[in-house]
Amino acid sequence: MLRSRIIPCLLVHNKGLVKTVNFKNHKYVGDPINAVKIFNEKEVDELIVLDIDATVEKRGPNFQMIKNLATECRMPLCYGGGITSPEQAKQIIKLGAEKVALSAAAVENPELVKAIGDEVGVQSVVVVIDVKKKGLFNKYEVFTHNGKKATGLNPVEFAEKMEAIGVGEIVVNSIDQEGTMKGYDFKLFESIRNVITTPLTIMGGAGSADHIKSAIDKFGIIGAAAGSLFVFKGKYRAVLVQYLDKNQLFKQK
Amino acid sequence: MITIVDYGSGNIDAFVNIYKRLNIACEVAKSPEDILKAEKLVLPGVGAFDETMRILKNSGMIEALNKQVLENKVPVIGICVGMQILANRSDEGQLEGLGWINADVKKFDVSTITQKPHLPHMGWNTFQQEKESPILKELIPEKGFYFLHTYYFSCENQSDILTSTVYGKKYTSAVNNENIYGVQFHPEKSHSNGVQLLKNFANL
What we know:
Chain A has about 250 residues and is α/β, with parallel strands linked by helices. Chain A is built from ten helices and 14 strands.
């Protein structure tokens, strides 16, 4: 039977790993390769690595870093950050990542999503949708550029549009919950799960094994991603790269 | 000695790394001459069926591969799309496959998939052994393998089915006919089960 995936998401900033809260307050949490080595030992389901500088600095992906990561990774790797052409996507897959993630580029140029799918296969194309509540009525809106740029897009409609173009996975990230460790925003994810059949990964707010478990209980087969949960320990947020005991988690179910 | 075929598709380094850590000698083949010297062949593959066949053809290595695999009976394992091209044809494209195994590649029928998500079949899934083979030695079915695909391998001969996996319905997740092996999943990205399978292949 197909299992849910529990996915650490690592953010690369100034060549190191950072963790943010609501996309702000970057805290250095270590070296990317070292984290991958630990996650190998823990037999992590999958890894998402996002270079959060690339798009903002208007530069392409750092291929050397991706090669180093993919070579070390003994689990599937999804890379995102600065991809603006099918050639770049092809190169990243060739370097050993299983998936390429698009965010700002998918919003600005939906045709690119199709072009990349044609090049590397639809199954390897991931769209990351960063969502923030906005305005008096707390309406969900898609943001890009690390939460700084409002797009005016409704996340549900945007997800439907991406599915119609053809993608292998949609990652929905709640900026409001990100880094808070207070739990997932199920209302947001449910609104998207209801309208798409593409694999969905949820991100933003997971702070405990119970949060992950409740997501799996609620959605069935889902990708449950988290950052802080896998790099911090205790209420003082001491840096410790760690994972959940999957056997325990699935046994309780 | 393991020879990983570098024809421009798939993730060569991940295999090299695993064999390095296992202290098993391995090299990368970039020419027909390299193929003709090989004792065991790994045929990786990512992306679409036609694109994979096209770059394999352009590499000029097909003839050498046919000779090694079909005449000299050198063991070969195709990975993911590298498995699918062992078949005669695919729903995904127009080009002919290698035809080493009598099979077709078909698209999953989403009407059999009752839950969300539908496609691709992506993530960790278990397998069931369908026949005895040293390549399955010491694998743990419950731990499963990592899958990422939309098309599946459909054998003409039941006796070629090595393992099956359920997604919607039961399908062939690994195949074997004499010296020819294929796995739909990614052993290079499947932790201890994957490492064990690659080790078993080396020990055949």
